[in-house]
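Suppose a colleague, Dr. K., hands you the sequence of a protein chain of 362 amino acids and asks what its three-dimensional shape might be. Before reaching for any lab equipment, you can write down a predicted structure in token form. Begin with the sequence itself:
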Amino acid sequence: MYYKLPTTLYCEKDCVMRHSSDISTYGRYAYIITGRHSSKTNSSLSDTVSALKACGIKYRIFDGIDENPSIENIMKAVAMSDKDCDFVIGIGGGSALDASKAVAMLMANPEENEDCLYDSGKTLCHLPVVTIPTTCGTGSEITPYSILTIHKKRTKKSLPHKIYPSLALIDPTYLASASDTIIRNTAIDALGHLIESYINTGATDISQMFCIHALKGWRDIYSILTEKKRDYESYEKLMMTSACAGMAISHTGTCLPHGMSYSITYEHNIPHGKAVGVFLGAFVDHASVAMQNDILSLCGFDNGESLHDAITNLCGTVSLNEDEVETAITFMSENTAKLKSCPYPVDKDILRDMYERSIIIV
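The predicted structure, expressed as tokens, is then:
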């Protein structure tokens, strides 16, 4: 048995200001990495600036992180940094948090260029990272993963380097400004993490403990997602489900649905959570009967088809033509890492069955 989760996590209202002194332990000059809009709308950026000012910490802001940030986007953020910055704060959804980790690594290794990002032969240090999530899906605030878009390969891929945040500050009230679409898509991403971590060759008793705890509450989560009116308790459940899912995949990584989603997200601009979610029912149906029963009984669904129907009810369907499906199957059949993480044999016929069950082929 192996367990490692070095990130300190707090989840509470006014979390950032309450723990400003904790933030101050990581340095005296922060580089804030965030997107263009949401962190300004939900007050997470202003809260962070107030916390830094209260502790006398200098800061610099890069607010140009794209959705599904690319290597080029990361290099731009690094180029606009100050060499004197000694820690990084990521604010936003998974894109900003993932970006903050990559930026922290490159800033700590100024002699390196973008070639080091996917060089698994290098062992690289990184500046301390503080994460402040404003969506409820990626779990990036607590995972060591940084997933970037690689335009040359027309896909997304996680860095081979493990970059654990030092501190995660979760304020559920930031979700109140998120659109219903964002909340649904990111919550489905968290569900994908839980299911893919449970049905995984890397699963352990501890990683499955996080999955079981969070999946038990999925019936409540589904009700929250279908309702228009939400309160603090609802946002807290959504955020903590995402964090628990992040704790699980920190040990196992993700599996087939995530691998199958990447090309769809890149080629068709389909939100990541939706692109993952459409494959979850078929993924569960191909698992062992014991694993199927575990997942479905915890989530409150009768079978993989009813799980799929619930997800498409929340996020909608995905349509591809036959050529696009064949291209996606070929791409996925070459993803050895995701295939290795699957606890049942997978070939092109099984992948084709999963696509046919999961999407509309036009």
